[in-house]
Design a protein that fits this description.
With 363 residues, the chain is an all-beta fold. Helix content is 2%, strand content 50%. Strands 8-12-11-10 form a 4-stranded antiparallel sheet, with no helix packed on it. Strands 15-21-20-17 form a 4-stranded mixed sheet, with no helix packed on it. The chain has a 4-stranded antiparallel sheet with strand order 24-28-27-26, with no helix packed on it. The longest helix has 4 residues. InterPro entries: Cadherin_5, Ig-like_fold, VCBS_dom. This is Tandem-95 repeat protein.
């Protein structure tokens, strides 16, 4: 074989030393092709013939572009991403994609149509999405195939944002006039696992005061004599801009309060009709409802006379002038008679009587 030729648009041909021919088809060419070749007898005689090559068609890989997108947690304007994948395929009718509808990923769902239009929607309510911290990134990759199975990818970057904490209501109890310190952070949560602190607390000043302690506890100090329920509002922070407020309900148990009582004094005089009685009114205040009254006494005997007091504090003392111990008093001699009076809750006070003697004539 002394030579060979072929249409270069269809391929190339090589004459091998052993007399064979090698035909190399042009890229992606298929169909019949004629190779012309010439032979010689070495003595000037030649002849030319045609070798017909049939190039069988095979599927050709499509040439596909890739896709990328970015979505962001808790950011409505950035919870979706979309794009268009490019495709070329020399095989007729195969420059299309295999469609997908809402294919599930770890962080969201993916769709693509036959023309390569793709869309990704972040599942913002997904706990794994909400667990992403501020600035944390995760990658979500979806495989897309053309009609002939050639693969490409769409890669999504998921960016985390700070998730605010959740403060949960608390409760505590204490006795009247007794401060109480209690924790509030133990049942509060943060999706990102951030360290929480108490940044402030408030309460109705008529019911008491509240202090935020360095360890995150609160101390409530009831107003004097206050009892009943009281709501303490407190705010927590994750240190990254996220805050939450909750109510701690404190039950202040009532305790008996000592009444504030006045004392009483009076003077009586032996054998002096105008001065054998004394009287007065005891004062009383008591913050406990219904207890600003006295325990009544009627004709309570003393050494020199008898004593009475009603519930309103009106008291009276009558000297027993006929009593020998009274008659034994000398001119100007004095004796003291003290009676104890109690309020409804048992708080005591006293009424003190001074008994003055007079001269008793001889018999």
């Amino acid at each position: 074989v002394t030579g060979a030729s072929v249409d270069p648009a269809k391929g190339s041909v090589t004459v091998n030393p052993d007399g064979t021919l090698t035909f190399n088809p042009a890229p992606n060419f298929n169909g019949p092709v004629e190779v012309s070749y010439t032979i010689s007898d070495g003595k000037g005689g030649t002849s030319t013939a045609i070798a017909t090559i049939t190039v069988n068609p095979l599927p050709d890989d499509a040439q596909l572009g890739t896709g990328t997108g970015t979505v962001k947690e808790d950011t409505p304007a950035q919870t979706t991403a979309s794009g268009v994948l490019s495709i070329t395929d020399p095989d007729a009718g195969e420059a299309v994609f295999q469609p997908q509808t809402n294919a599930s990923g770890t962080y969201g769902s993916f769709s693509v149509d036959t023309t390569g239009n793709w869309a990704y929607t972040l599942d913002n309510a997904n706990p794994v999405v909400q667990a992403l911290k501020e600035g944390e990134t995760k990658t979500e990759v979806f495989t897309v195939k053309s009609a002939d199975g050639t693969p490409t990818t769409v890669t999504l970057t998921v960016i985390g944002t700070n998730d605010g904490p959740t403060a949960v209501p608390d409760s505590a109890s204490t006795d009247e006039d007794t401060p109480v310190t209690f924790p509030v952070l133990g049942n509060d949560t943060d999706p990102d696992g951030d360290t929480l602190t108490v940044t402030g607390a408030s309460v109705d000043p008529a019911k008491g005061s509240v202090t935020v302690n360095p360890d995150g506890t609160l101390t409530f100090n009831p107003a004097p004599n206050f009892n009943g329920p009281v709501e303490v509002s407190y705010t927590i922070s994750d240190g990254k801009g996220g805050t939450s407020t909750a109510i701690a309900t404190i039950t202040v148990n009532p305790l008996p309060d000592d009444a504030q009582l006045g004392t009483g004094t009076g003077t009586v005089k032996e054998d002096t009709p105008a001065q054998t009685t004394a009287s007065g009114v005891l004062s009383i205040t008591d913050p406990d409802a219904g207890e600003a009254v006295f325990q009544a006494q009627t004709g309570a005997p003393g050494t020199y006379g008898s004593f009475s007091v009603d519930t309103a504090g009106n008291w009276a003392y009558t000297l027993d002038n006929a009593n020998p111990v009274v008659q034994a008093l000398k001119e100007g001699e004095t004796r003291t008679e003290v009676f104890t009076v109690k309020s409804a809750d048992g708080t005591p006070t006293t009424v003190t009587l001074t008994v003055i003697g007079t001269n008793d004539g001889p018999t």
